[in-house]
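Quick check before the chapter quiz. The format below is the same one you will see on the exam, so make sure you can read both the input and the output lines.
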Amino acid sequence: MKNVILDCDIGVDDASALIMLLKNQQKVRLSLVSTVAGNSKIENVCNNTIFILRNFATRWVSVAVGASKPLYGERKLDASDVHGEGGLGGLKVEKQSDAKFTTEVAEEKIYKILSSSKRKITLVAIGPLTNIALLIKKHPEIVKKIAKIIIMGGSISGIGNITPFAEYNFAWDIDAAKSVVESGLKIYLSPIENANNMPVCDDEILASLKDAEHAEILKKIFLNLQDGSVPFGFALHDSCAAAFLLKPNLFKTLKCDIKINNDKKDKRYGQCFCEINKKGKNLVFVPKNYQKVKNFILKTTFGG
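Here is the expected output.
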């Protein structure tokens, strides 16, 4: 069984990724879900996380509250136009008033779990990388306790979805992204090209919807979404990271060096691209067959 910590900013595609892991709790042991502002403000992210866990988890998972703003400055980006006002599409989630969170903030709870574990743990980071950057800044020695980190962010070619050059997760806290990429962690990157090349349509969701128990919740979250970054449908970016964790044989990995531009004076500020080379320090993964990966995501998220 894989020991995993999920760091996320629960919006629509994060919800898919979390549901995928929760439906595979016989394969994945979620030690913690840590939250970070990104797709929505931190209050919504925490509320959405608790809601998904209460409805889909077969055993409880601890939740730690993380960063509400980037390492430097204030929160500037918002994705409510894509993920809905509350972050879960058309689903209006009531305040989970009796929700319980860990007493430690996210980076300290992650540190506590990593330092006390006899085995290395895999981090899956599918939101802005602020929590992970804070973890490394405060406890640089903890890197050796991390087996690898699977990150959804950036791109292979330098394209963006929030600007022509910048991908949303990295752009939300570009300094955190650069810090994590340069930390020496074993990084597996899922770039935006993965989901951009296999957007999901409502008809495909409905055809895959075999989970009768959660059908109404799933339909309210995932149907009738507007994603301006793809020509049709919705790009489930974070689901690709979960798919790689659960079924890595569906992907091919390429050695690369990840380059991030955090020069505010440069028009390409926020850009990430992967320099593919055999001596690269990092790894980027892409589907061997896009339709097979898409089918796996649909079946795992919406299947019974």
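If your answer matched, good. The longest strand covers residues 251-260.
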